[in-house]
Design goal:
Aminopeptidase; five-stranded mixed sheet; 4 helices
């Protein structure tokens, strides 16, 4: 039996042709962010209208990792920011997160970005070890104040 190779697929969140991949990504994304709105596709389409993009790493017909990202100008240069980098918990250690992170970094370089950033919750120590191994470092503290019930 031949094992399918991982493939990274950039999705157009505004193109119905990519909807099957978006539908396959939903369960994995919800496992990471259970509070995502019920209208998952609508929510991501709204994010796309505000500049977000998405890529999925697939093996055969299965989505094994996702990245939601954006690039924009800031006061300190052009920034490539990853909103979410999610891998299938049961399949960690297979290089899917590393491959998708490297793909995102290549996109950032191609877009002429000065910075490649993401945030990771303080409780995600395994993720932090992964980011350190991938050459990233802590550059700031993030502070938050809830303005709604979320």
């Amino acid at each position: 039996m031949t094992t399918a190779e991982p493939v990274i697929r950039p999705l157009s969140l505004k193109d119905a042709g990519d909807r099957p991949w978006l539908d396959r990504a939903e369960a994995l994304h919800r496992a990471f962010r259970p509070a995502l709105p019920a209208d998952y596709a609508g929510h991501l389409t709204t994010m796309a209208e505000e500049g977000a993009e998405m890529a999925v790493l697939t093996v055969g017909d299965a989505v094994r990792a996702i990245a939601v990202y954006r690039s924009h100008h800031t006061t300190f240069g052009r920034r490539f920011y990853i909103d979410d980098l999610v891998t299938n918990e049961a399949r960690r250690g297979r290089g899917h997160g590393r491959a998708l992170l490297a793909w995102c970094e290549a996109q950032a370089r191609e877009q002429g970005c000065d910075w490649f950033d993401l945030e990771s919750g303080t409780q995600r120590t395994r993720a932090h070890r992964f980011y350190f191994r991938e050459g990233m470092h802590v550059f700031a503290f993030g502070f938050r104040k809830a303005l709604t019930g979320g």
